[in-house]
């Protein structure tokens, strides 16, 4: 069994979403990071084409975040969040509300904290059901997601999620799924948003007709699906979904765990698409990936509806030991300072065209069947090998890493999402390493 430096065994660590035995036989181990680069344990520099896991939006090793975390740990390392609070959690939630998805007048002016995207999504689903009950719609407990959706790995998230491998082994809570919007036949190699597929939002009408609107609490979607391999919403799709949910009194939740904090070239996808939902979940870029934290932005009327009954009564029986953790709040505030000072939440807009052109230069390479880009996100889809789906994608991912670029593989799709500090020459390096890997992989 491989050991790190011949001393540290890899065996005891059960790795998440990893082929453990394959990995441990040939590990890829990162030991340091700064700016746009990782360093692996052999001292090789690896350019980060994925902002870690879609989270390190301001680049690695930011001193401001380190200092804020150190200071907070030394000042107040932890404070209970139940029936107690501490200054920095209020400071941070106020700051977030000022820059809420859709702007500070969007109505998304309350924040519930969690520690991961999965927890934020489950929190939002629970708030939706609790809200419906609070307004006298207690029959509305059914949830709706979408095929190919990813909303983390809690039981709520996998139930509304639409990735078969995350679902097949586990029981789920009642949920229906709208059709996904990936249509390579009609939309392959479209620059910008796909033109075909707005009518897929009408699939919600089918689910309403089947179950009755009075049973449905909420619909959750990623405005842009990342984990399924970069699936963009067709022009007009999200607007239509907003209209239909409104018509039937169904809450709309946007999962912005990936799209939040500048990934699309706007602060949130809400700003990119101009569609304001009832709740928005976020995580990852919230603290630049430095300390686990997630948040749910909630509309004023939802919060108000739950602030009913005797004042000495807990309104929502939900929360985590680490909700609003002071150290995470400190990291988050420092992160927001960096985003603001460096204009990172809109930097993707400036680079969007350059990025798109760079990725579209891969068109015509062997096995490339689609390229999709938006903001600083890119997806390159490859034809699967006969009887070995995902193998080609995996080999390209490994090849890129060996040659100094971290990309993300989902099946036979390579996803790219570099830190928002990326420079044009670094985009060129990432894309050319990917091009070489694609050419080398049969
Ligand atoms: C859209 C979306 N929702 C939820 C999650 C889950 O987040 P976490 O892994 O922090 O639980 C992810 C993670 O990639 C995600 O992309």
From TrEMBL:
Keywords: Aminotransferase, Pyridoxal phosphate, Transferase
Catalytic activity, EC: 2.6.1.18
GO BP terms in the entry: biotin biosynthetic process
Phylogenetic placement of the source organism: Bacteria, Pseudomonadati, Pseudomonadota, Alphaproteobacteria, Hyphomicrobiales
Pfam families: Aminotran_3
Enzyme class, broadest EC rank: transferase
Cofactor(s) annotated in UniProt: pyridoxal 5'-phosphate
GO MF term list: adenosylmethionine-8-amino-7-oxononanoate transaminase activity; beta-alanine:pyruvate transaminase activity; pyridoxal phosphate binding
PROSITE patterns: AA_TRANSFER_CLASS_3
Coiled coil: none
Protein name: Beta-alanine--pyruvate transaminase
SUPFAM superfamilies in UniProt: PLP-dependent transferases
Nucleotide-binding keyword on record: no
Protein family membership: Belongs to the class-III pyridoxal-phosphate-dependent aminotransferase family.
């Amino acid at each position: 069994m491989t050991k790190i430096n011949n001393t540290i065994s890899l065996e005891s660590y059960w790795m998440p979403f990893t082929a453990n035995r394959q990995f441990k036989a040939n590990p890829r181990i990162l030991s340091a990071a700064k700016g746009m680069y990782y360093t692996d344990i052999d001292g090789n520099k690896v350019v980060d084409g994925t902002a870690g896991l879609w989270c390190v939006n301001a680049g690695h090793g930011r001193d401001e975040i380190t200092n804020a975390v150190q200071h907070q740990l030394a000042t107040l390392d932890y404070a209970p969040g139940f029936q107690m609070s501490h200054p920095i959690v209020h400071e941070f939630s106020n700051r977030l509300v000022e820059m809420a998805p859709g702007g500070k007048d969007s109505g998304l002016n309350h924040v519930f904290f969690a520690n991961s995207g999965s927890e934020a999504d489950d929190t939002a689903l629970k708030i939706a059901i609790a809200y419906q009950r609070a307004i006298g719609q207690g029959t509305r407990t059914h949830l709706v997601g979408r095929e190919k959706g990813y909303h983390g790995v809690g039981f709520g998230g996998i139930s509304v999620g639409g990735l078969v491998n995350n679902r097949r082994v586990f029981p789920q809570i009642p949920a229906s799924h709208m059709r996904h919007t990936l249509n390579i036949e009609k939309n392959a190699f479209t620059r910008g948003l796909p033109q075909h597929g707005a009518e897929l939002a009408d699939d919600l009408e089918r689910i309403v007709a089947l179950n009755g609107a009075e049973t449905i609490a909420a619909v959750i979607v990623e405005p842009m699906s990342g984990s399924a391999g970069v699936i963009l919403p067709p022009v007009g799709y999200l607007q239509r979904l907003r209209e239909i949910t409104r018509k039937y009194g169904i809450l709309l939740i946007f999962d912005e765990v990936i799209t939040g904090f500048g990934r699309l070239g706007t602060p949130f996808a809400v700003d990119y698409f101009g569609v304001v939902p009832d709740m928005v979940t976020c995580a990852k870029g919230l603290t630049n990936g430095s300390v686990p934290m997630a948040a749910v932005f909630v509309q004023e009327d939802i919060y108000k509806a739950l602030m009913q009954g005797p004042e000495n009564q807990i309104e929502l029986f939900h929360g985590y030991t680490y909700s609003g953790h002071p150290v995470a709040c400190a990291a988050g505030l420092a992160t927001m300072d960096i985003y603001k000072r460096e204009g990172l939440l809109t930097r993707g807009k400036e680079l969007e065209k350059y990025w798109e052109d760079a990725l579209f230069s891969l068109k015509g390479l062997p096995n490339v069947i689609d390229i999709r880009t938006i903001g600083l996100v890119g997806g390159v889809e490859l034809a699967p090998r006969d009887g070995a789906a995902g193998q080609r994608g995996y080999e390209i991912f490994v090849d890129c890493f060996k040659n100094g670029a971290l990309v993300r593989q989902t099946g036979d799709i390579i996803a790219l999402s570099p830190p928002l500090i990326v420079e044009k020459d670094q985009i060129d390096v990432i894309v050319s390493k990917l091009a070489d890997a694609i050419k080398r992989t049969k």
